[in-house]
Amino acid sequence: MPCTAYRAEYRPDHDEADQRNDVVVLSAAGISGNGKAEAFLNDIITSHLPGRFTFIIMLPFASPLLDICTQHGVTALSVENSRAAIADALESVQKQHALAVIHAHSALDHLAAVTWRKKSPQVFIIATWYDYVKIRSSSDNRYLFCNSTAVNMFIDATLRDTMHSKVADGCLKLAKPMLIEQPSLGPQKQITMLEHCYLSLLQPNRTHEISGTKRSCSHIKLSYITHFYCNQQNISAVFSLLEKYADYPADILDHVHFVIVDDGSPITYETPHLDLNITWLKICDDIPWNQSGARNLGALYAKSDNIIMLDLDHELPAETMRQLEKRPSCGKRLYKMYRESPDGSRVYSGHSNLFFMSRGRFFELSGYDEEFAGHYGAEDFRFVKYHKACGTLQTYLPKRIRCRERTDIDRSRSYHSLSRDLSFNTPVDSRKKMEIATYGHGAGHSRMFLNFSWKITAEHWRTPAPKLAIDRRWKYLALLRQILPRF
Length: 487
Hints:
alpha/beta, Spore Coat Polysaccharide Biosynthesis Protein SpsA, Chain A, 2 domains, seven-stranded mixed sheet, seven-stranded parallel sheet, 20% strand
């Protein structure tokens, strides 16, 4: 059967998108006599953008745009036409606001912004090009116009093509180009494109007519994958577990993504409204014992490299979840986890199908083999054996990091009644064992993957998303990571 994904259209609620009132400085102290720049700035000032961003406009003395700013409630500063004066004005604004973007509208404003930006490297600089300028290709100019500039914004296509056509004559080809003139966008096309530019730079989570709905999940450190099949009365076993997790501290929940897979349950229910980062999936085909497919689907939607896959009858204490989200990538390690009794008095060996591992490694070795789907057993055993044969090291997490068996599941009302009989999958498993031993690398796995249809029934993200910690050294340690993958 072909794999078909019925993805539900997800649009965040208004309060889920980033609602920061980002400060944008329109640096235009050097635009005197440039009619194109003045016309574009007039369009910006009189548009809806000042209502979405906090604009501070730096203009030359006696500019007619100063009165227009006053009429539309936009903050304007009269600034002398010199690099030092522009830099001083930027410094003054920075002391009162957290600058996000400096949008330069003249060569002088751009140079002053790049010079000042050395103090605040997280500020984005946009250079706007209204007329042709011959720029010699040199290391200084590459730093100024390419490395330090987030966007080189061209007012029309003719100007962009003219400047890029001069590369053969020793001119610099400007990196990160953006054409503000987009006829296909209709009226107010320049303002629409400019809004898209600002939002793309400043708001990873956004909804806009150009970019659609976008969301960044780079803050997710752990994906919790579980699945269930219930053909009895209700799914209270799922609800009660998620409700317990929803009470965990915010510093844990902010970084955990819960992926819940309903493996084709025939009963109906409403998904709960819980303040978790959660994706709820429903397999549309009722395939008996489809744990292999359910786990493959859960891994597909996970938002982090480190994933934990476990059945519904186990839970993670808060401290365990905190420890897991702080661990580095599992790489080629497949971790088991010790279990503790419900009262914490006894610690014993881990469950055979609870795995903490790398999502990348999971897909590198083709995930679970769905040839086992349809009948009970053997898929977890063969999953581990295949990983070991391919060089994955199976080991235990430290004993302080452990899970707990659940005692609150009503197996007569909120579970399943499928038969547990290994008869069907025993010969399948035996053949795969022979294939690995006989044919070596790549053998022993059918590559059957997601042979069913599914849909997203619910999705929710906690807001606001936590800010990422600053680590400017990380980029420069790439060589060490090539030598030491866990560095």
